[in-house]
Amino acid sequence: MLAAVVESSDDAIITKDLDGIILSWNRAAERIFGYSADEAIGNSVAILAVPGRAHEVPEILERVRRGESVDHFETLRRRKDGSVVHVSLTVSPVRNQRGEIIGASKIARDVTARKRMEQDLRDSEARFRGMVEASAEGIWILDPYGVTTFVNRRLTEMLGYEEHEIVGRPAVDFLHPDERQRGVEAFEQRKQGGDFEPREYRILRSDGSEIWLSVIGSAMYGAGGSLTGVVEMCTDITERRRNEQKIRDLNRELGAKLAELETLVNVVPVGIVLCDHECRSLRLNPAAQKMLGVGDDCELSQFRVRRHGAELPLENWPMQISVRTGKGVVEEELEVILPSGKVIYVLSATSPLLDEQGKVRGAVGCILDVTARKNVEDGLRRANVALEQFAYAAAHDLQEPVRNVVLYSQLLAQDYAGRFDAKADKLINVTVEGARRMQALIQDLLSYARAGSDENTAEAFADANVVAAEVVQNLRTAIDAEQASVEAAELPLVAMRHGHLLQVLQNLVSNGLKYRRADAPRIEISAMRQGAEWIFTVRDNGQGISPEHHHRIFGVFKRLHGRDVPGTGIGLAICERVVTHYGGRIWVESEAGRGSAFRFTVPALRGAQ
Ligand code: ADP
């Protein structure tokens, strides 16, 4: 009965004498060590010894001799095929009926499988730990109550706490107070095995700063299926959140700017027109809608455009040019014929709209309605022309009667001087003087009116050297009388009528002779090129003009001198009228007592230097 138990045991059961000679060997011993009972019995147990552990056999026998047992001693033994087996040995002394120790019984349990499992476990734990520590993610393991049981190094870095400061504390302690309720709820859900969505939490670090973690977790279960905790994987998303915030701020700013811009576009009294790259349909702001008498979108082809009275083909409209060339176009003035047939005048500036790649995706145009200004200008121009015609006609028609008044008052003075009393003589002289002065004024007025007459300036041409020589010749008598010198430098050919240049230069030189000081007058005429113009200078060494009068003297009948110096105050007005007729300017540089330099610009001849 006992023998049957021994034979059916899973453990090797061996008996040996005190010298270690094997006396019995059950079936399990055969299986575990590979020796049959026949091979083993009679042999020493030393056949099972492993090099390096051979000393164990006599040591165990020694203990047995002393009556001691060896319990669950784990060691290695060699099998018959040379391989090694992990065994747990329990050795007890065997006594005879007299109680003397005569041998030992040994139970050897094969623990190789368990040992291997233990090793595998250790290996896998080391691998797991290596992975966890090397992870770029923070790993946070909580027990079922939410208390930290493990954190990896990365998580300690993220939180700024030592491992021992985190482990043993509830994870919610580290959440920002506002986040804690949410944290607890999420943990409960995870415990139920749900909620695999990443969640974002604001975390308080040990130094008080805040970071954002994205946390994804899952429940862990033990062998019996019971919950052992929750593992949370944590990613630092502070930078991303910061960028998102920046983008949100920027978007808000952009939105506000856009709203401002939209308001501006809606209220600005300038028409704003947008077209796409086909330049067919238009979108208009309220000002443009009002100006053009259409709704907020319409077709370009509903309009017609004229420049200087000539119709512009559609492809030459500013918006079309901007879309085609990718360049801005600024137009002085265009005439737009609206769908209703009404005509308006606009100033326009267009600019291409580019996409991100810099390709033209349309154009934007700004239009300013200048119809009212244009009408006023036209009215003024017409009134001016009428006024000039009237002045001219009046002056012209007055010439004849004034000539008669001069003539007859002179005759009266000649023939009747001394015939009446002295008072009558004086009155006659005053009449003669007044009549002469009126005649001079009328003649000057006529020249002034003629100076601005609308002569074509396109073909105008003069050699300023010839003109200057003619001026000197015309003023010869006065030059000699004043003992003056008039010198002209080398002068250019200019795009101005000979008669007009003569009128200007002669007026300026004769003023130089008239408004002299005690020294003999010295007058120089010169010219200097600047861009498409010549700047002429007539410089004298006369009385000069203080700066506050510089502008005034160009007005009609404006004089700084009294009757002591003859003149009507029209000479400089004529000069200005002639010069501006050619698109030029006239001005004076002078100070009282220091001579004057009158300057004016004249268009250069095209192509001439
Ligand atoms: P007028 O010579 O007939 O008075 P202008 O129109 O030629 O008329 O000149 C207007 C005024 O400008 C003159 O009365 C004079 O006071 C002043 N003026 C013109 N030229 C000179 C000059 N070269 N030097 C000083 N004053 C001048």
Short description:
The chain has 609 residues and is α+β, with helices and mostly antiparallel strands. The protein has 17 helices and 25 strands.
Descriptive report:
With 609 residues, the protein is α+β, with helices and mostly antiparallel strands. The strands form 5 sheets. The protein has an 8-stranded antiparallel β-sheet. A 5-stranded antiparallel β-sheet has the order 2-1-5-4-3, with helices on both faces. Strands 7-6-10-9-8 form a 5-stranded antiparallel β-sheet, sandwiched between helices. Strand 6 and strand 7 (148-151) form a beta hairpin. The longest helix has 46 residues, at 371-416. It is rod-shaped and about 200 Å long. The protein starts with a helix and ends in a 6-residue tail after the last strand. The model has no long low-confidence stretch (mean pLDDT 90). The structure holds adenosine-5'-diphosphate. Adenosine-5'-diphosphate binds next to helix 16 and helix 17.
Radius of gyration: 60 Å
Number of helices: 17
Report the portion of residues in β strands.
25-35%
Based on secondary structure, the structural category is: alpha+beta
Spatial order of strands in the largest sheet: 13-12-11-18-17-16-14-15
Q: Could you tell me the number of beta strands?
A: 25
Shape: rod-shaped
What's the pLDDT, averaged over the residues?
A: 90
Characterize the quaternary organization of these chains: single chain
Distance between the termini: 141 Å
Ligand inventory: adenosine-5'-diphosphate
Q: Mind describing the biggest β-sheet? A: 8 strands, antiparallel
Helix content: 25-40%
